[in-house]
């Protein structure tokens, strides 16, 4: 883990993974202000799954583990709303969090060390084939520009994003992301369950 830093938190009903693409429409004043600050200062914000509460309204309770998001493209609409395209970067763990008077959650977080690159073992080549088919079917433009189909962590993260599984299961995969082979094993089991 690294030296803790403070970042704003954007709790959502979904999970973001490193290198994942996340389009957002920002309209609540607290998040418009957050987006403006992140754009101006080229800073990241944290995306976490909501443990309790809702995306809109009073601050939700975030899960302890999330992923930072960096704004790669943005558009300010005449209504004052922002349309953002963000990309996931680093997994973090919340040490403590609080709300500002505007309702924005701010957290002191420490970053997890990214896993060492590991090639996809032969036993999981069916997962790579499945991911390749999904990328071709959905369209390569919906994925990171560089497709790292030989990297176990990248393959695991992309499949975790795409599988129709409950957010809580997606969160468990994010929390296990320091062990890409364990994630692939879990995904293999999930796919087996979905097919049955």
- Strand tally is 6
Order of helices and strands: EEHEEEEHHHH
Tell me the strand percentage band.
25-35%
| Quaternary structure of the protein | single chain
Largest sheet: 5 strands, mixed, barrel
Can you walk me through this structure?
There is one protein chain. The protein is of the alpha+beta class and 196 residues long. The protein has 2 domains: 5-111, Archaeosine Trna-guanine Transglycosylase, Chain: A, domain 4 (Roll); 122-195, LON domain-like fold (Orthogonal Bundle). 32% of the residues lie in helices and 32% in strands. It has 5 helices and 6 strands; from the N terminus they run ββαββββαααα. It has helices at residues 29-41, 125-138, 152-162, 167-175, 180-195; strands spanning 5-12, 21-26, 45-52, 61-76, 82-99, 105-111. It has a 5-stranded mixed beta barrel. It is globular and about 50 Å long.
């Amino acid at each position: 883990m690294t030296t803790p830093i403070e970042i704003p938190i954007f709790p959502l009903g979904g999970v973001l993974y490193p290198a994942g693409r996340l389009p957002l429409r920002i309209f609540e004043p607290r998040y418009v202000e957050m987006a403006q600050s992140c754009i101006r200062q080229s800073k990241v914000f944290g995306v976490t799954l909501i443990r309790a509460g809702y995306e809109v309204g009073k601050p939700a309770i975030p899960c302890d583990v999330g992923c930072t998001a960096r704004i790669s493209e943005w558009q300010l609409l005449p209504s004052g709303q922002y349309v953002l395209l963000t990309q996931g970067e680093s997994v973090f763990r919340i040490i403590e969090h609080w709300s500002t008077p505007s309702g924005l959650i701010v957290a002191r977080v420490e970053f997890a060390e990214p896993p060492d690159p590991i090639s996809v073992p032969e036993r999981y080549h069916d997962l790579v084939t499945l991911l390749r088919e999904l990328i071709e079917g959905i369209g390569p433009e919906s994925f990171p520009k560089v497709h790292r189909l030989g990297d176990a962590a990248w393959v695991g993260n992309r499949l975790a994003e795409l599988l129709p599984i409950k957010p809580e299961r997606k969160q468990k995969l994010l929390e296990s992301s320091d062990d890409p082979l364990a994630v692939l094993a879990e995904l293999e089991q999930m796919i087996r369950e979905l097919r049955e």
